[in-house]
TrEMBL record:
<keyword id="KW-0256">Endoplasmic reticulum</keyword>
<keyword id="KW-0479">Metal-binding</keyword>
<feature type="domain" description="EF-hand">
    <location>
        <begin position="121"/>
        <end position="154"/>
    </location>
</feature>
<dbReference type="GO" id="GO:0005509">
    <property type="term" value="F:calcium ion binding"/>
</dbReference>
<keyword id="KW-0106">Calcium</keyword>
<keyword id="KW-0732">Signal</keyword>
<keyword id="KW-0325">Glycoprotein</keyword>
<dbReference type="GO" id="GO:0005783">
    <property type="term" value="C:endoplasmic reticulum"/>
</dbReference>
<protein>
    <recommendedName>
        <fullName>peptidylprolyl isomerase</fullName>
        <ecNumber>5.2.1.8</ecNumber>
    </recommendedName>
</protein>
<dbReference type="InterPro" id="IPR002048">
    <property type="entry name" value="EF_hand_dom"/>
</dbReference>
<dbReference type="Pfam" id="PF00254">
    <property type="entry name" value="FKBP_C"/>
</dbReference>
<dbReference type="InterPro" id="IPR052273">
    <property type="entry name" value="PPIase_FKBP"/>
</dbReference>
<dbReference type="InterPro" id="IPR011992">
    <property type="entry name" value="EF-hand-dom_pair"/>
</dbReference>
<feature type="domain" description="PPIase FKBP-type">
    <location>
        <begin position="1"/>
        <end position="77"/>
    </location>
</feature>
<dbReference type="InterPro" id="IPR046357">
    <property type="entry name" value="PPIase_dom_sf"/>
</dbReference>
<keyword id="KW-0697">Rotamase</keyword>
<feature type="domain" description="EF-hand">
    <location>
        <begin position="77"/>
        <end position="112"/>
    </location>
</feature>
Length: 154
């Protein structure tokens, strides 16, 4: 699922991220579980669930820092990369998406929206999906690879 997060030290600019896949510090993943849209929480996150002994240079967070966040959840969306979507594409339930499975899914999606497309568009999109998501180059997109959002998709 996608979550909308506002942080005070970020001038309150909302930020989209996927909960539970390590896009944010572990403490925020835990603190935002079961939050409802419109809910606000003030959370204190110990170093072990934040940046630990390393700190975070760019953000000027020193080593072993305890972080305090004021969070407001604006919206929750089931992203196109939800677990449900993955399972829908993964027809043989082997927890990885083959070229054939994704190809079939694209055909179904194209049929659903009814737009006329040149057949080469399908192959280009399929190639692009594997180029961006098959990080280990094994010809499959694993559940982990599928769940990582590319920045241009946020």
């Amino acid at each position: 699922s996608l979550f909308f997060l506002s942080r005070t030290q970020n001038e309150g600019h909302p930020k989209w991220f996927v909960l539970g896949v390590g896009q944010v510090i572990k403490g925020l993943d835990i603190a935002m579980m079961n939050m409802c849209p419109g809910e606000k929480r003030k959370v204190t996150i110990p170093p072990s669930l934040a940046y630990g002994q390393q700190g975070y240079v760019q953000g000027k967070i020193p080593p072993n820092a305890t972080l305090i966040f004021e969070i407001e959840l604006y919206a929750v969306n089931k992203g196109p990369r939800s677990v449900e979507a993955f399972n829908q594409i993964d027809k043989d339930n082997d927890r990885k998406l083959s070229e054939l499975e994704i190809s079939q899914y694209l055909k179904e999606e194209f049929a659903r929206d009814g737009k006329k497309r040149h057949p080469s568009v399908h192959d280009e999109i399929l190639a692009d999906i594997f180029k961006k998501n098959d990080h280990d180059g094994d010809g499959f997109i694993s559940a982990k690879e599928y769940n990582v959002y590319q920045h241009d998709e946020l």
